[in-house]
Amino acid sequence: MGKKSNLSGLHRFLPQLEEFLDKSTASLPEQSLAPHTKKRKTGTLSLVSTTYDASALVPHYRTADDVPENLQKYFSQRKRYFSLYEQGCLLDEEGWYSVTPESIALQIADRCRCDTILDPFCGVGGNAIAFAKTCEHVIALDISPVRLALARHNAAIYGVADRIEFILADYISFANAYLSRPHPTRKIDVVFLSPPWGGPGYLSPSDNLASSDEHQDELEAHPEYSLSSIKPIHGADLFRLTKRISNNIAYFLPKNTSLNEVSALIERNKTAVTDDEPHMIEVEEEWMGSKLKALTCYFGGLVAGQEHLF
């Protein structure tokens, strides 16, 4: 997930963004404008070794003694975040508490197989790396040049950096610039939304609870999370903006998110359809062992049974 900063406008990433947009509006053969069909990658991708070293930016902790106290509990799970951590994977402080565990990232990537996927809050690259294994092309954005460099460094370790386009970008400006083009032919098939939830305190008052065998007990221990807490803008507004890019959205949210608010997203965004079937949302619980970590809400053609909407 990305982190809100004081960046504004396009000046920090204009060259990269212009290059992307120029490609998206280049003239293509007439057949490329035909209705899009989803390509599902089923083969095994070969890994390409790429050298990219960002080790001067942040420390690579090797023992618990080297780790700051506030990161100790995250360091103990380092191989859950990156199975290749010992080969040099790097995380900044925000990356430690916001990166998607690798097994969950791979599961989401399998659901999001497509040609081109946009990860607009890529952070240190956990999800982008997983998407590079199932999608033809990954567009990874972040507003932090450090986190973007770390994401590229980590992608190189996994051998997938050549399939990821890293862009230093504020997503809101990027989306508005992309949508302002009259006929963008470089289509984005899926958008994976994993915006900032508000830091590790999003489960306030505390996430330090004793283990419980009861799912309901765990959920009742925390207040309901509202989409209004999403950064950089209200989560519902973020969804509406994203839906203008693609109907196929995977929205990664806290485990205690209000499902009524999630359901309201499609109620507020009804558009004309060619049949009488109601559009559905699929909510997938992301578990690690006995711990519920997050929810992934699927929309459009990513919903099981709605593949025809892709």
From TrEMBL:
GO terms for cellular component: nucleus. It comes from Rhizopogon vesiculosus. One of its GO terms (molecular function) is RNA cap trimethylguanosine synthase activity. Belongs to the methyltransferase superfamily. Trimethylguanosine synthase family. Transmembrane segments: none annotated. It comes from the Eukaryota. It catalyses: a 5'-end (N(7)-methyl 5'-triphosphoguanosine)-ribonucleoside in snoRNA + S-adenosyl-L-methionine = a 5'-end (N(2),N(7)-dimethyl 5'-triphosphoguanosine)-ribonucleoside in snoRNA + S-adenosyl-L-homocysteine + H(+); a 5'-end (N(2),N(7)-dimethyl 5'-triphosphoguanosine)-ribonucleoside in snoRNA + S-adenosyl-L-methionine = a 5'-end (N(2),N(2),N(7)-trimethyl 5'-triphosphoguanosine)-ribonucleoside in snoRNA + S-adenosyl-L-homocysteine + H(+); a 5'-end (N(7)-methyl 5'-triphosphoguanosine)-ribonucleoside in snRNA + S-adenosyl-L-methionine = a 5'-end (N(2),N(7)-dimethyl 5'-triphosphoguanosine)-ribonucleoside in snRNA + S-adenosyl-L-homocysteine + H(+); a 5'-end (N(2),N(7)-dimethyl 5'-triphosphoguanosine)-ribonucleoside in snRNA + S-adenosyl-L-methionine = a 5'-end (N(2),N(2),N(7)-trimethyl 5'-triphosphoguanosine)-ribonucleoside in snRNA + S-adenosyl-L-homocysteine + H(+). This is Trimethylguanosine synthase. InterPro entries: RNA_cap_Gua-N2-MeTrfase, SAM-dependent_MTases_sf.
